[in-house]
Design goal:
Order of helices and strands: HHHHHHH
Number of domains: 1
Radius of gyration: 14 Å
Strand content: under 5%
Largest sheet: none
Shape: globular
Number of helices: 7
Oligomer: single chain
Distance between the termini: 38 Å
Structural class: mainly alpha
Length: about 120
Amino acid sequence: MDIKFRKLKFQDVFAMSRIIKKTGIKEEIKGLFQEKTEKSGKDNIEISQDQGLQLAVILFENIYRAEDEIYDFISDLSEIKREVIIEMSFEETIKLLSSFGKMEGIGNFFKSASKLMQ
């Protein structure tokens, strides 16, 4: 299955904000970005693809807390029907989440969404 995601847009911040709040991962996300900011000495830095993957892992570890919201969000981004995502094999789900973590701009998107929740 070839997985493609559309570009992130402002309205996605609201969905992601709900997911961050419901999963309780705000502090983990802030910690991930704060560590990079402290190492670089800069406040406005690009988030690496590795950090995007770390975000996907954090999300995966807490996915059960916001199952419906995550299905809807991933479905909207990928244009894969929610029902198809629900029925994916474990391997397909890992590929989907890995692709999500590698999306261009996903790290900065999470960073911005978590800042809105402060």
